[in-house]
Amino acid sequence: DAKTTQPNSMESNEEEPVHLPCNHSTISGTDYIHWYRQLPSQGPEYVIHGLTSNVNNRMASLAIAEDRKSSTLILHRATLRDAAVYYCILRGAGGTSYGKLTFGQGTILTVHP
Amino acid sequence: DAGVIQSPRHEVTEMGQEVTLRCKPISGHNSLFWYRQTMMRGLELLIYFNNNVPIDDSGMPEDRFSAKMPNASFSTLKIQPSEPRDSAVYFCASSSPEGGYYTGELFFGEGSRLTVL
Questions:
Q1: What is the mean pLDDT of residues A37-63?
Q2: Of A76, A82, B27, B61, which residue is 20 to 30 A from B51 by alpha carbon distance?
Q3: What mean pLDDT value characterizes chain A?
Q4: A11's torsion region: left (phi>0), alpha (psi -120 to 50) or beta?
């Protein structure tokens, strides 16, 4: 499976934007880029995913580099409830990786009031 | 709609006992995943099913672990006999295909925290 690299931790202040980077230099052409987050004592929660184009939803934006070797999750205005571990994951669309998510260590986001 | 439902939420047992964790996926989802989370190893995929058929069980630690999905609305993960190193939070997740590919999101349950003494 292609791997991702994320910073171990990041900090932000409330109401400020947060840019969470992810490197995935070995991404294949059919891999989707998924972001999940895990709040304390909860199961992982889907945030956003994309293939080639930038994506926006109510939770966040996903900016994907033109060569797809990196991506950035953007939280436009961090709140205290956004404090969580954020996972960047490559998800295969077929074959033996059909549907599988392989979680790395993720980025621990701390949001300061 | 109800999300993925797991039971029990907490289980404390003694080494050697059988443990059964249960999962009810979201109605209409046809893929089901079992994950385990520990501080040391993070989130690990144990096994996943597609249309009730196990597709990949390469993450199952050893023969003490077994998983079944007798129908589309129920799955179990069994550990027999349990050992202290099995202590972890076990998550179940379900997903539905989009256009024939699993590009959609996984929905996770709240997890079952297992402590083996």
A1: 93
A2: B61
A3: 91
A4: beta
Instruction: Please tell me the distance from the alpha carbon of residue B64 to that of residue B67, in angstroms, as a whole number.
Output: 10
Confidence of residue B100 (pLDDT cuts 50, 70, 90): very low
Contact criterion met (CB < 8 Å) for B42 and A46: no
pLDDT at B105 over 90: no
Closest CB to A49: pick one of B48, B93, B103: B103
Tell me the backbone φ, ψ of residue B86, rounded to 5 degrees.
Answer: -85, -5
Nearest to B71 by CA among B105, B43, B30, B11: B30
Residue found by looking up tokens 């979680």 in the block: A103
- For tokens 């003490």, what's the residue? B64
Element (H, E) at B93: strand B88-95
B48: chain A residues, CB-CB within 8 Å:
99-100
Selecting from A34, A43, A102 the residue whose C-beta is nearest the C-beta of B45 gives A102
